[in-house]
Design a protein that fits this description.
The chain contains eight helices and no strands. The chain is an all-alpha fold.
């Protein structure tokens, strides 16, 4: 089975950076609130440019881009496309089906459930789970 994303982040040395990004975004000051959201999720070059120009006038664009680096697989956020966010923040593009909250739950599951249960869930042996726990614990202690 595929290695959990939380472990991939830890192996790549990105878990601490990922955890440092805010999980919530306050949209009270966002310029895009009243804009057509379709523009921000279009693949048309003209609409991407329009979305970026709207973001360029937004006072929370930097926070939005940072939030999206951790929470959004698609769309223009903070004036950046997913690829641009990945380049700027160095984080892998996270599938929205497994966003920040799910990754935290995944980490908690690996650290707190019996090793046999974790091993069964991810299709690995308990020695692998113990290595994962050691890796994740090193990030917890460093934080």
């Amino acid at each position: 089975m595929k290695r959990p994303i939380v472990i991939d982040l830890a192996v790549k040395g990105l878990l601490a950076q990922f955890k440092a990004i805010p999980a919530q975004l306050d949209l009270a000051q966002a310029v895009c609130v009243n804009a057509d959201s379709e523009i921000f999720f279009s693949e048309e070059a003209a609409e991407i440019a329009l979305a970026k120009s709207i973001c360029g006038e937004c006072p929370i664009a930097a926070q939005c881009a940072e939030w999206a680096a951790k929470n959004a697989e698609y769309g223009v956020f903070g004036g950046l496309t997913p690829e641009e966010r990945q380049e700027k923040f160095g984080l892998p593009i996270i599938d929205t089906e497994l966003g920040a909250e799910e990754i935290q739950l995944q980490e908690n599951f690996i650290l707190n459930e019996p090793a046999s249960k974790v091993a069964e869930c991810f299709g690995v042996d308990t020695r692998t789970v113990k290595r994962w726990r050691k890796l994740l614990t090193s990030y917890t202690l460093a934080a």
